[in-house]
Amino acid sequence: MSNCKTHKTCINEALKTAEIICNERGVKLTKLRQTVLKLIWKSHNYVKAYDLLDDLKKIDSSAKPPTIYRSLDFLMENGFIHKIRSLNAFIGCTHPNEHKECYFLICDNCQNIEECCSEQINKVVTSTTGKNHFEPNQVTLEISGICQDCIS
Amino acid sequence: MSNCKTHKTCINEALKTAEIICNERGVKLTKLRQTVLKLIWKSHNYVKAYDLLDDLKKIDSSAKPPTIYRSLDFLMENGFIHKIRSLNAFIGCTHPNEHKECYFLICDNCQNIEECCSEQINKVVTSTTGKNHFEPNQVTLEISGICQDCIS
DNA sequence: TCAATTATGTTATAATATAACATCAATTTC
DNA sequence: GAAATTGATGTTATATTATAACATAATTGA
User: What secondary structure does DSSP assign to A45-58, as a single string?
Assistant: First the structure.
């Protein structure tokens, strides 16, 4: 479960940040992409592409799979959302400006996902890939289990 | 690229180990499951489920998706193979007896996957989940990039 | 303005995975 | 050893996830 009090703030923050970053980068956060980002941020839980598509269809009944997947691609490329590979699902990024590598704590019970960064983990990954003479490109670290709020 | 000299040895090892573990556990490594495990071990590269199905069809033309997926499920449950979530692919496990958590170094160039264990990584994961009061269940750590042999 | 680029619309289909029910084989129990 | 139970496989159908390919529209920039 997330601790945000007024979730609207989370959504607005996410949209504003995305807007700013897009301007900096000279890429366009179009109406559609905004809408999709907003739909993803509907909650702190992960969302599936086709659920998103259903949501989008309520707004624009002509939406089709490529509509969603293209927006998802754009949002991922720019770091506004992440794909959770172990779930084939997507989630809004809580700090699109800052991180390099991050990892996810996925609650099997409440579906909430916590996005975390850890210098420690980065170091270990770097050192272990170094030992293997491996040039890392992308790190996927997803930890599923039971979150704080669901343990009791 | 893998360093095995006679890959047949890898396959035989994998099958023998699986056999022994199944006996210990009182579960059955049926003909079909053996065949699928052998097909997965055809190389050290990862394999896709439907490629596997095509291979299996050459042996038993009546094979269908559930044939493969059931065997894959069994082999995963017993730790003889792993699913690589970032690729929707499967790979034989190199040490089904020993490890708890492991991680994968996936070469984008040659498709080889190195399965590694690191006490260090386990510790960091434990400590970081602990800090978040998170009860971990399953850890997915997949690092893609360029392997030693493909860097030059 | 028109050429090039980028974004979106649209149709179709590819790729991945599972549900549901039938049958067969092995094991246990009486 | 026959019947009952369990586990494995066969089979049909379909769900879920994702992309290719081509058409059109909007935007940018020379």
Answer: B-B-HHHHHHHHHH
